[in-house]
Amino acid sequence: MDAILTDDENELRPELVLVVDDDEMMRDLAVAALEQAGFFVAEAENGVVALEQFRQLQPDIVLLDVMMPEMDGFATCRSLRALAAGRDVPILMMTGLDDTRAIEEAYDAGATDFVTKPIHWALLRHRVRYMLRSSKAIHDLRVSEARLSKAHRIAHMGSWEWDVLNDKFYWSQEIATIFTVDPDGFDSSYAAFLNIIHPLDKELCNKAFEDACSFQRPISLDHQIVLPRGDERYCHTEGEVDTDESGRVLYISGTIQDITERKRIEDQVRSLAYYDSITGLPNRVLFGELLERALTFARRYRKKVAVLFLDLDRFKEINDTLGHAVGDDLLREVSERLKHCIRGYDSVWQGLGATEGTPVARLGGDEFTVIMEDIQDSNGVIAASQRILQLLSDPFLLDEGEICVSASIGISIFPDDGEDAMTLVRNADTAMYHAKREGRNNAQFFMQALNDAACERLQLERQLRKALANEEFVLYYQPQIDAGSGAIVGLEALIRWQSPELGFVPPVNFIPFAEESGQIMLIDEWVVHAACRQVAAWLAQGITPPRVAVNLSGCHFLKKSLVEMVAECLQNFALEGRHLEVELTEGVIMRDVEQATATLAELKRMGVTVSIDDFGTGYSSLSYLRRFPIDTLKIDRSFITGVTKDTDGAAITTAIISMATSMRLEIVAEGVETAEQMNFLLERGCSVMQGYLFCRPVPPDEITRLLVEGLAMP
């Protein structure tokens, strides 16, 4: 027996929504969204169950899926409309189908409206509320004309009635306001009404009115209108059919509501939720949904899908030097080139409103992705990648001038490199970093070896984060010897990492990771602090140590906080600047000459010595040496190795010694391992040396003994 509720009871209880879908996950998502919005929700897994539930519960609105077993959504909708209680209930059809035929069939079946999947659940709640509000407005029209008139004014909604037999429209004043016409001087025929409808929506509206006349179906649709001055607005039209005793249609009456503002807000919300605000491309959220859809299609038809992960090379430098506005302009230009470069792989985009059907998305920053569907082999992917690289290599002409940029591309293939979206994106990202390590401006396919290496890197980064807190670092010291007298004239502090999990990790293995992760500044600070602490300990023991040289990373050197950090460490241990030497490479100080000059000047004012490490491998220019307050040149070990065997190495080393002597700079030769090398250097006026011939890097206790007892010369 059907439940019967009075009008008062209906007024008091919350609206009941019947969700009909064979997909349990979709039902769960819908129930969660609607219950959170305050609705009562009932569920049905197919059309047969839905009809039984409808008879028992008499819901206020039905959310109906199209593709279901036993009875599909169209048949269910027709059956609901055949019930007395189902004639006016709003039916919102949820479908992944997006062709015109499906839309027409939905309306033919009696659907009030439809929404395509994937569904934006926040918008769905608003859509349900709106449909219920419109349905209630029609009910109130029959109950109280005055109440309806007031509601219409508030909701920008007007009432209308079409005398079908005499072809005459009767409009309320609110509709005349919406249409911006004078109802007294306006032709009130159906043809005149249809003339106001936007040309793109005329067929849809005409079909709705024809079906109302032929099949006594209610009208419920969104459409655009064109005002007399050419302005366009969005309206929602509802209508019901009145017949005589013989079933002949006499009147169709209903409402028209101006929903322009609602449409604008919906578009704005959708844009914020699914599209990147700078480029207009799909964002990370929409990209994820589209990739899932592409993979579903690929699994069903045994197809391959490629994911291209693209990162602009050195984009941060452009942002930092030219400003974020220029960076945003560049991102927009890059996105335009990418959209026009990738064609023919956009089936997942159809019907989802993405700009020009492009399969390109921006994940954030300077990261872009491309989905390529139905690929036959890697050749097509390679060709597309090369087109992208070639297109991006052409200079970008912006208002600020000509900007050149390149890209690194990582590629993963479904199902070879992963069977789910998350794995494919992660592996494409890994391949992209491999492309950067291979010199940038190239594309690389994912290989399992890359993933293994990435896992090792991740483990190393995790352990590195704990190393400082757990005091796993230690400083070793290698003496710098005056080979003429045998005296220790300097010490180079060299960091060592003894990890409990990884064992001994050489600096060459962890310093690059520290620079990438930004931890290098903390490590630099620890090194300077540890070196100062050790010097203070020696002084407390009555030992007068030589100056201690510390190596600083390039990224830290160019930070203004470096000088403050060094000054604070010296002050904390009551040391003078002469106890400390800062070692830098040529390339570091040439990155930003102005900042380097200022930083070096500040260090010199504190009395800190400055040396150039690995001299001869970089710029090696007298012109820049004269510009900077440098005390010492360290000749790179690669030249020292060949001084007794290679005439070029000997000539370069001799030239460096002569140049430094003429500029009154101290000289330290690194990597001295044989007596022949030592004698060669002494003969040419370089007496300070460092290398295994004299002493390997040793821990603090051992270097303390050497400072006290002296070092035996070879």
TrEMBL record:
Domain GGDEF: 303-448
Domain EAL residue range list: 457-711
Keywords: Phosphoprotein
Superkingdom of the organism of origin: Bacteria
All copies of domain Response regulatory, residue ranges: 16-132
Domain PAC: 219-271
SMART domains: EAL, GGDEF, PAC, REC
PANTHER family associated with the record: BIOFILM ARCHITECTURE MAINTENANCE PROTEIN MBAA, DIGUANYLATE CYCLASE DGCP
Keyword Phosphoprotein included in the entry's annotation: yes
Keyword Cell membrane belongs to the record: no
Protein name per UniProt: EAL domain-containing protein
4-aspartylphosphate PTM sites in chain numbering: 65
InterPro entries: Biofilm_reg_signaling, CheY-like_superfamily, EAL_dom, EAL_sf, GGDEF_dom, Nucleotide_cyclase, PAC, PAS-assoc_C
